[in-house]
Amino acid sequence: MDRDLYEKRLVLRPDGFHDRYGRSVCLRGVNISSNAKLPPFIPFQEDCWWDLLASWGFNMVRLTLFWEAIEPEPYIYDRAYLDRVSDMVDQASRRGIYVLLDMHQDLYSRNLHGDGAPHWALPPRVDPQNNDGYGGQFWGTAYSLSRDVKACFTYFFQSGDLRKHYLKAWQEVASRVRENPYILGYDLMNEPSRGDISNILGCFENEHLKPLYQDAIGTIRSVHPGAIGFVEPHVQDTYTSKLTKFQTGGLVYAPHLYNPISVTLRFDPLPEDMLFDAMYRQHKATARKLSMPLLIGEFGAPWTMWPEYARNMAVDCAYQVLEGDFVSCAYWDFSVKDVKAWNEEDFSIIDENGNSRGLEVNVRPYLRLLHGRFLSQSFDRLSKAYALSFRSPPGGPPSVIYVPESVQYPDGFTIDVSDGMIEYRHERSELAFFPERDGIHSIKLRPGR
C-alpha cells in the first residue's frame, strides 16, 4: 500500500481516536449485519452497498464475524470465508471506511437459536439438535432461562482447550487483514454471558472474561503489532459492569446502548430521551473507571415498535445523546436481504425489498474531525437545524462537519459562522472550518439557500 493510505491509520489516545494531524475523530458507523448470522455468513458481496454507506456519511462499520464460519471443524479453517472477509475490508478501505472486526455471538451458537460457536464447541451434555435453547422475539431471555445456553457459556469459560481454539480463530483473522490501515480494531467477543458463573462481586468479568480479553488481544498482537482491542461488559450487567482496570493497554470500552423495554416489548411508555441519557451516563462512568475511551458498539430500535413513529423517535433520541457528547457509535444494523430472518428482528436501514428507510434520523450532520475542544452539538430532525460549538486557536488543520445534503438539505442550506473561513467540499459532503481567532467558535446550518 502507498504512503498516503498508511497515513490514514488512526491513533488511539486516552480521549479517543485521532488522525495524523492530531484532530479528534468521530466515528459514525453501522453494524454489518444481522443477516450474516446465517450461512454463508457474509452480509453482501456487491460493491454498490459500500458506495451507498459512504454516500450516507458512515466512516466506520462494525463487521460481524463468526467462529463457526472461521473454524467449522477443529483446526480446519475456511480459507474462502477468510478471503471474503479480507475483500470486505479492502472494499471498505477504498471508500475511506474504517472497519471494526467483531467476533459475534448470541446465545452461544446457531444450534441454540443464536449464532457464534461451531457445533463441536458445545459441551457433551448439550445436544446440538435437541436442547432447550429458543429464539423468537424474546430470545434474549434465554441467557437466563435456558439451562443449555448457560451450560455452553460455563463450559467455554472453564475450558482451556476451547479458549485456545477461539484465540487461534482470532489469529487467523488478524493474519489476513493486519496490513490494512483501515482496520480500526478487534471487538473481542460480542455480548459475552457468564453462564452459571457468578458475577455478583465481579467474579465472572474479572476472573474469566478479562483474562480472555487480555489473551485474545495478545494473540492478535502477535501477528498484528499495536492492534487495538474493543471490550464489552457481561451482557446481563451491561449497565452495571463490575470490570476493573486492565493491565493491558490499547483498549476501548465498547458497550451496547439499547432501551430494554422498547427492544423487547416493541413499545415504550417511558420518555426515551431520559432513559437513553441515563444509560449512556452509566457507560461513560464505567469507561472513566477503566481509563478507556468509549465507543458505543451497538444501538438502535426495531421497526416493529408501536406506535409506528416510535422507532424513529427512539433512534433520534439515541443520536441526540451521543452526538451531544461527541462520542463514536455504530447503529444496528445494515442488512440488505433477509432482514427479518434472524429471530424476528428487524432493525435494518434497508428494508426487505432493498430500499432505504429511516434516513431522516440515521443520516444527519455531525462533527467528523475536531481541531480543538468540543463544547456542544445538536441536530433537530424536524427543523433540520444543526448547531456546533467548540473552542480552538487559529491556524492548524480545519475542523470538518459531514453534511448530508441529499438527505437533509435537498434544496440547499445556509451557514452561519461566528468567525473565520468555511470551505464546502461538495464531492465529499464536508464542510471545513478555519477559525481566525482564539476562543469559542459556532457553526449553524439551516435548510434553504
Basic shape: globular
Total separate domains: 2
Q: Counting H and I runs of at least 4 residues, what is the number of helices?
A: 13
Beta-strand portion reads: 15-25%
How many runs of DSSP E, i.e. beta strands? 20
Specify the helix fraction band.
25-40%
The strands making up the biggest β-sheet line up spatially as: 9-8-7-6-5-4-12-11-10
CATH level-four homologous superfamily name of the largest domain: Glycosidases
Give the integer mean of the pLDDT values. Answer: 95
Structural class: alpha/beta
In CATH, the architecture of the largest domain is Alpha-Beta Barrel
- Largest sheet descriptor: 9 strands, parallel
CATH C-level class of the largest domain = Alpha Beta
- Separation of the first and last Cα atoms: 42 Å
Low-confidence stretches: none
Short description:
The protein is an alpha/beta fold.
Keywords:
globular, 29% helix, 9-stranded parallel beta sheet, 21% strand, TIM Barrel, single chain, 449 residues, alpha/beta
List the helices and strands and how they pair.
Blueprint: H1 3-6, E1 11-13, E2 16-18, E3 24-25, E4 28-32, H2 48-55, E5 60-65, H3 67-70, H4 79-93, E6 98-103, H5 142-145, H6 147-158, H7 160-177, E7 183-187, H8 203-221, E8 229-231, E9 251-253, E10 256-257, H9 260-265, H10 272-290, E11 295-299, H11 310-323, E12 328-331, H12 359-362, E13 366-370, E14 373-379, E15 386-392, E16 399-402, H13 405-408, E17 413-417, E18 421-425, E19 430-434, E20 439-447
Parallel strand pairs: 4-5, 4-12, 5-6, 6-7, 7-8, 8-9, 10-11, 11-12
Antiparallel strand pairs: 1-2, 3-13, 13-16, 14-15, 15-20, 16-19, 17-20, 18-19
Helix pairs in contact: 4-7, 7-8, 10-11
